[in-house]
Amino acid sequence: MESCWNFLRNSGRPERKVTLAILGLDNAGKTTTVQSIQGENPEDVCPTVGFSPVDLKQGQHDVTIFDLGGGEHIRGMWKHYFSECHGVMFVVDSSDVQRMKETKDTLAKVLRHPCITGKPVLLLANKQDKEGALQEADIIDRLILKTLVKLNECHYKILSIVPCSAVMPLGKKAIQGGLEWLLKIVGRGYNHINERVRKDTAEQREQEEEYRRERAERVRKVREERERREREKAEPEEAEGKTAELDQGEKSIMGNPVQSFGDIIPEEWRSRDSWNFDGLGQSAVCSGRRMDRRAEGLGPATGTRYLSTSAVSTANSS
To answer: In the chain, what percentage of residues exceed pLDDT 90?
Structure first.
């Protein structure tokens, strides 16, 4: 009768979308726990690298679980998902006593994050089936949970520890009971928590957009500086190349400064007027009518007197 009443009471409630993050060190059993919640057989589970979302239905809740890798180099990425989370499941390997301090430090860092503080946290003490696994009281002492709760403004009503084993039937029931408790706490303060999620998500997106703009501006400045340096480097090389071309042109024009004057005059000039040259600075004897008017003149620079053909004949007869 009570179950029928609960069904009728819940049937009129709107479905709520809840996002949870499952965190913990590598090899703590996070993915195995998620498979246990889904009702799957947790065998041959591979370590999660990065991020793996899982969607499932739990009563009146549409639940999305962010299965985040627990490797040391991946934990720094957790914070990018905190703003979207309504609650957290933190999995502890109860049998790994050597890493309890690392677990404590990681949990403390999560609880201190402003997007997590005040939100409900389910602590799953996994692998209770292993020999030497710590009991609930020992885990509370090792993780200094009472101190962490006080420092991070949490209350016991929003933090619960559940001993479990994700591979054992009783452990699966314990995990399912813990999930139901977590969703119940989220449901009680859903409006407040969901408003936080909406606000935190908007702020994070704005920060990420600002970071992308700043990064694009830095890239632009670096590119402009590189192009400026390349231009400055290319200008002297271009000027040097032009100077070399001018020098080569002058050499081709000047020729050999010690060669005879006749070798410098182009061939077409020689054939056109039948010029005969006996060397630079020497007298030039020409035959042709173009030089007749300058037969008695002087050369422009050398002072050489030009002789016409008739003058040459007269000189020879005398």
So the answer is: 42
